[in-house]
Write a structure and sequence with these properties.
By secondary structure, this protein is mostly beta strands. Strands 2, 4, 13, 14, 15, 16, 17, 18, 19, 20, 21 and 22 form a twelve-stranded mixed beta sheet that branches. It has a six-stranded mixed beta sheet with strand order 1-29-23-24-27-28, with no helix packed on it. The chain contains five helices and 29 strands. The protein has three domains: 143 residues, 3-Layer(bba) Sandwich (Glucose Oxidase, domain 1), CATH 3.50.30; 67 residues, OB fold (Dihydrolipoamide Acetyltransferase, E2P) (Beta Barrel); 55 residues, Roll (SH3 type barrels).
Length: 350
């Protein structure tokens, strides 16, 4: 079966949100939530430190104990002074994190650091349809859905805005002004770092691109906002279907999830745009046979990014100029015409 990428103007989107460890779920089944609402919280396991009091102050064990300023059970913040200052150098021993002293013995302090509470947010407006009560919550919404091929691992939400002059245009700093502050941006291609840093200064909540220069990957991974690449790396225009869907929904709230699934997780980076529920719509299909009439997209050169419809799946392997023999489909590509494309170079576009 061919991989399936969803570019849907209207669908029932159902996603499970999970805490990294068990905690407390505050959301209830059938509850309507907004993108910024907290669904659940968990406190990670405490970390412990063994601090050498005598060495830290440069004093004998018994003398060092006299300079202890905090007692067991007393809560402190990161950087608070636990002991000292002493001597001309005013040496001190400070808390390595927020927490408390558990015990003091043999000139050493057993310190327990409290982990920060992890909050699980909805990330998109929807209805809670299921929960296990301790770790996971399933949300459902009627929404537009655009799946990407790569993301930088971040999540956020904001109002969708289109910048630049089309799906193949390169993003420039001149395209970014104060009117885009706090928005989720849709653009064509990015090949320079300057627009990325400009978007950071504008506190943008996300960036959706058709293509990205591969040498910018390390920069994009460090950005504070999610970046989603719809097509791939290089000077690749966003396909017309995705660009049109995103442009049509400019001004609406969009949720960006830039996380990429691992070996046992098929999660795709995606854009979810909640819409008013005017009628019942189905959940997208995850398995679609490559039958005649099915819409597909080419994912490799020479027709990378082209969209078309399968005319027929050829029974015999087809030879190509590279010398490769491959199972292929005859595809009517928009703006190109009818041609043979290896099945390995196709994905189904729903």
């Amino acid at each position: 079966m061919l991989p399936v990428t969803h570019v849907l103007p209207l669908a029932t989107v159902r996603r499970e949100r999970s805490l990294p460890s068990p905690g407390t779920v505050t959301a209830r089944v059938n509850e309507k939530v907004q993108a910024g609402d907290v669904l659940a919280q968990a406190e990670p396991p405490a970390r412990h430190y063994l601090l050498d009091l005598a060495r830290g102050l440069g004093l004998p064990e018994k003398e060092a104990l006299r300079h202890l300023r905090r007692q067991p059970g007393e809560r402190v913040d990161s950087g608070d002074v636990l002991a000292g200052p002493v001597g001309l150098a005013r040496r001190t021993l400070r808390a390595p994190a927020a927490g408390q002293i558990i015990n003091v013995q043999d000139g050493r302090i057993l310190f327990q650091a409290h982990g920060e509470v992890v909050s699980l947010k909805a990330e998109y407006a929807g209805v809670v349809v299921a929960t296990d009560g301790v770790q996971s919550v399933t949300l459902e919404a009627t929404a537009a859905l655009v799946q990407a091929v790569w993301g930088n691992g971040r999540q956020d939400h904001g109002v969708l805005r289109v910048t630049g002059n089309g799906p193949s245009e390169r993003l420039r700093t001149d395209d970014l002004d104060i009117n885009l502050r706090g928005a989720v941006l849709v653009a064509g291609v990015c090949v320079h770092t300057a627009p990325l840093h400009q978007a950071t200064e504008l506190s943008c909540r996300g960036l959706i691109l058709g293509g990205l220069a591969s040498d910018l990957i390390p920069v994009v991974r460090r950005l504070p906002y999610p970046v989603l690449i719809v097509e791939g790396f290089g000077d690749v225009a966003m396909n017309a279907a995705a660009y049109s869907l995103l442009s049509t929904n400019a001004g609406r709230e969009a949720s960006l999830d830039g996380r990429v699934g691992g070996l046992y997780n098929s999660q795709r980076p995606e854009v979810i745009i909640p819409l008013p529920a005017t009628r019942q719509v189905s959940v997208p299909d995850e398995i679609i046979p490559p039958n005649p009439g099915v819409r597909v997209r080419v994912v490799h050169a020479p027709y990378h990014g082209a969209v078309g419809v399968i005319r027929e799946v050829l029974h015999k392997a087809v030879g190509y100029p590279s010398g490769i023999l491959a199972r292929s489909a005859r595809v009517d590509l928009e703006g190109i015409g009818t041609t043979n494309v290896p099945l390995a170079n196709l994905e189904i576009l729903q």
